[in-house]
Amino acid sequence: MLTRKGPLYILPWRCTFACDSNCAHCASAGKSPFPDEVDTASAMRIVDQVYDFGASWLGISGGEPLLRKDLFDVIRYARKTGLNASIITDGHLLDDEAFENIVKNEVRVSVSIDGAETMNDVIRGKGSHAKAVSAIERLSGAGLLNCLVYTFANFNGSGTNVNEGDFTHVLDLAEKYNARWVIYHGFIPYSKDKNSLKADPSPQQYEWAWNKLYDLRGRVV
Questions:
Q1: CA atoms of 139 and 118, how far apart (whole Å)
Q2: Which of 6, 124, 106, 123 is nearest to 56 (CA)?
Q3: Which of 13, 79, 129, 166 could bridge across to 117 with cysteines, CB 3.0–4.6 Å?
Q4: How does residue 219 score in pLDDT terms, banded at 50, 70 and 90?
């Protein structure tokens, strides 16, 4: 694993706005690519800039990165340039071809999962939990699973994943499949629409969440 002495360890690149999932808390849900998203040549120039800046890692997010047709062309270029590469995905597009490219290029992969099956499928759509766990298991077997990523939110009267049961479910998955860590982060409001803003947990929920996660730290440290 390459480690360079730059001002940042990793630089993120949001490679596309597009996503074919419909997660209740995401600005990219069900969206198409922006019309002015960079082409392959421009993406490779971004890679050069990241390398020249001194970073060790190119972190690729979306939207859903696996929707970008030239994703692995850009990753291969980044690896040839001398950068490590990571992506974040919900795992539903991790087919054999994508998995083979991930393994060949030693790409570290983080998987988004927002709780146990019932809650995760409310948030991300029916069957999304099973697809995420399948991806987690496969990536773990290849030694390329990085993090599990969990977003706090409330969901249109269907409940909230700001609760101990969903927290610990994802911690258990991380422990079982040797994820490096679980990242819990807050909902980021993406519009002034009142229905969208309802997904934002209350200050009291956040206070409870941070205290509970502090308590749970002792289980896994």
A1: 23
A2: 6
A3: 129
A4: low
pLDDT reported for residue 79: 97
Structure tokens at 126: 């029916």
Query: Is residue 161 assigned to a domain?
Result: yes
Give me 70's structure tokens. Answer: 């030239």
Q: Is residue 50 part of a domain?
A: yes
Nearest partner of 149 among 124, 125, 122, 118, judged by Cα? 124
What pLDDT is attached to residue 30? 83
- Lookup: tokens for 14: 């949001």
Q: Is the pLDDT of residue 221 over 60?
A: no
DSSP string, 42-61: HHHHHHHHHHHHT-SEEEEE
We report the CATH number of the domain holding residue 168 as 3.20.20.70
pLDDT in tens, 112-128: 999 999 999 998 999 99
Model's pTM, two decimal places? 0.92
Kindly state whether residue 5 falls inside one of the protein's structural domains: no
Query: Which residue segment(s) compose the domain that 83 sits in?
Result: 10-220
Q: Residue range 96-123: average pLDDT?
A: 96
Whether the Cβ atoms of residue 29 and residue 196 lie closer than 8 Å to each other: no
For residue 48, is it within any domain? yes
Helix locations, 8-147, DSSP H: 40-53, 71-81, 96-104, 117-124, 128-141
What's CA 8's distance to the chain center, in Å? 20
Q: Which of 63, 180, 187, 168 minimizes the C-alpha distance to 115? A: 168
Looking at the chain, which runs of residues are DSSP E strands? 10-14, 57-61, 84-89, 108-112, 145-151, 181-185
User: Which is higher by pLDDT, 70 or 218?
Assistant: 70
